[in-house]
Amino acid sequence: MRKLAFGYSTRCNIRCEHCVAMDGLPDNGKMDHDKAKQIIVEMARAGVGGISFSAGEPFMYFKEIAELVKLCGQLGIYTRIVTNSFWAKTAESSDSLVSELKENGLCQLRLSYSKWHQKNVSRNNVLNAAQSCQKFGLNYFISFITDFSREDDPYEQFLRDHDLTFFPEPVIYAGRAAAFKQRNILTDYQANCCDMNPYLTPDLDMYACCDAGSHFSKTRFFYLGNLNDHTIEQLFTKNETHQLYGLIRTMGITNIASFAGYKAREIITHTKCELCEKLFNSPQMLTTLQAQVSELSAWSR
Ligand code: SF4
Ligand code: SF4
C-alpha cells in the first residue's frame, strides 16, 4: 500500500533539542489548505492508502487538519496524526479535541514523548491525551524517543506506571540532534532494512524518506521532485522503481555498507540512519554504488 508522511506545516509551538528540523531554515512553512485537499484527492486516485500528518505540530492548525482527516476518511485513506500533546493540558480540553477527531474518522494518534519533548510539555498532557483516546476508542500509541541512557529510565517508568501503550524509538542524530555526542553503540549484526515512507513538505517537495533522509544535502539522494513539476503517480513510481531505494528496503543498510567496504566491526557501532548517511550522502560513495548497482543486487547469500 502506498503511504505518505504529509507535512502540512513545519511550524511547531515548541523547540526540542533533538528535533530533526534544521536550525536556520524557516519554520513557518504551511501548505495552502485548498491545495492540500486537492492533493489528497489526487493521492486517493494514485492509490495512496495511508497518510500520516506529521512534520511540525499538526494541532497548531487543528480545524484544518480535522477537515483533511475527514476528507481522507471519505476517500478511504487511513489517517494518523503525530503530536506533542501540548493541547491536552486538562482532561476536558483533551477529550474535546480527541472526540472531534474520532468523529471525523481519525484512525490513530501518535503521541511523541521524550526527555526533550517533556522540557516543554508536561508528561501529564501525554497521559491526558492517551486516556482520551482510550475513552473514545481511538487507537493510539506513544512514541518514546530515547538515546538509551539511564536518564530516560524515569520517563519509561512513567509510561509503565500508567499502563500506556508505548514503543521506544532511537533518537535520529540529524537536524538539531546532529550536534549531540553520539554513543558508540554495539548492536546485533542485523539487516537494518527500512520501509522508507515518502514525505511531502509544505512546499510540495517530495522525499523518499521521511526521517533523516530529507537532510542529505550533499547528494539530495532521497529527493523525488516537486508536485508542481510532476504528478503524484510519477513521484511514487520513481520511489518504487529506484534500484538503490529498493535495496535499502530489501537488502538493508548493513549489507550495503558491508558491500561498500565497511568492516563488520565498524558497522555495529553505527545506527541505521548514520550508516545510511555515510553511504548515500557522500557524492563519491554514491557514484560508486550507482555504478555497481547490478553487482550489489546480485550480492545475496
Ligand atoms: S520534535 Fe516534534 S514537537 Fe519537538 S520541536 Fe520538533 S516537531 Fe516540534
Ligand atoms: S536509514 Fe536511511 S532511509 Fe531509513 S530512515 Fe534512516 S535515513 Fe531514512
What helical percentage do the residues reach?
25-40%
Could you describe the largest sheet, including whether it forms a barrel?
9 strands, mixed
Q: How many structurally independent domains?
A: 2
* Radius of gyration over C-alpha positions, nearest whole angstrom: 20 Å
CATH superfamily of the largest domain: Aldolase class I
Pick out the low-confidence regions: none
Shape estimate: globular
Q: Determine the mean pLDDT.
A: 93
- What is the name of the CATH topology of the largest domain? TIM Barrel
CATH architect. name of the largest domain: Alpha-Beta Barrel
Summing up helix and strand content along with how strands pair, one would put the structural category as alpha/beta
What ligand species are in this complex? iron/sulfur cluster
Number of strands: 9
CATH class of the largest domain: Alpha Beta
End-to-end separation in angstroms reads 28 Å
Strand arrangement in the largest pleated sheet: 6-5-4-3-2-1-7-8-9
Q: Which strand-content bin applies to the residues?
A: 5-15%
DSSP helical segment count:
12
- SSE string: EHEHEHEHEHEEEEHHHHHHH
Word description of this protein:
With 301 residues, the protein is an alpha/beta fold. The protein folds into two domains: 182 residues, Aldolase class I (TIM Barrel), CATH 3.20.20.70; 54 residues, no CATH class. 38% of the residues lie in helices and 15% in strands. It is built from twelve helices and nine strands. Strand 3, helix 3 and strand 4 form a beta-alpha-beta unit. Helix 3 crosses helix 4 and helix 8 crosses helix 10. It is globular. The mean pLDDT is 93. Bound molecules: iron/sulfur cluster (SF4) (2 copies).
